[in-house]
Amino acid sequence: MKRFIAAFTAAYIFLFLWGWLLNGILLKDVYAQTPNLWRTQSEMLGFFHWILIGQALIVFAFVMIYASGFAGGGVIA
Amino acid sequence: MNWKKFFVAFIAAFIFIFIFEWIFHGIILKETYAALPPGLMRPAEEFMKHFFHWLVLGQLVFVFFFTMIFASFGGGGAAAGARYGILVALLGFGANLIQFAVHPLTTRVLGFWGIGGVIELAIAGAIVGAIYKRSSSTTP
Lengths: 77, 140
Fold this sequence. Notes:
By secondary structure, chain A is mostly helical. Chain A is built from four helices and no strands. Chain A has helices at 2-26, 28-32, 41-46, 48-69.
């Protein structure tokens, strides 16, 4: 359980930073070319907590799958 | 890896996913998608003519790795497969929440995707698990 929480926290921090760098900075201008596909910036900020919850759910399931099937060596073993 | 079992499981799961998604997205959610802001979804004609093969390719890639990851566990039967499918569905629902936050989708679409995803992948996982069972000759 302790390892699970540590892995979850580390992976969550990485995913949050990576998502911010990739989608918030690197792809910002690319996304701006298709405004009809996106919520407005101010509207998106109102939905920001859903991004955090979504990322937490992704990381939780990701670590859970790893812990269930691969923690003993998995693919490499 | 038992490749014969892997390919049988992969094909069976792909057929299920293809049919489920056709019914779920193509029939059940058709009107819901039609009510979304114009331009968010491709027009049906454009989609069928130019992009349908991408959808099939996407399903193939998804099911291939869905089966591959489960097989890498060493298999485990239908119940283990269903549990695995539910975990993958939760992962997918996390991505759906992010899509909801950034695209002008509705809570109705989000709710259907969440419920549909769990049902779809629990069944797909059970199919893969039932076919790719653990056996003494199967090595992970």
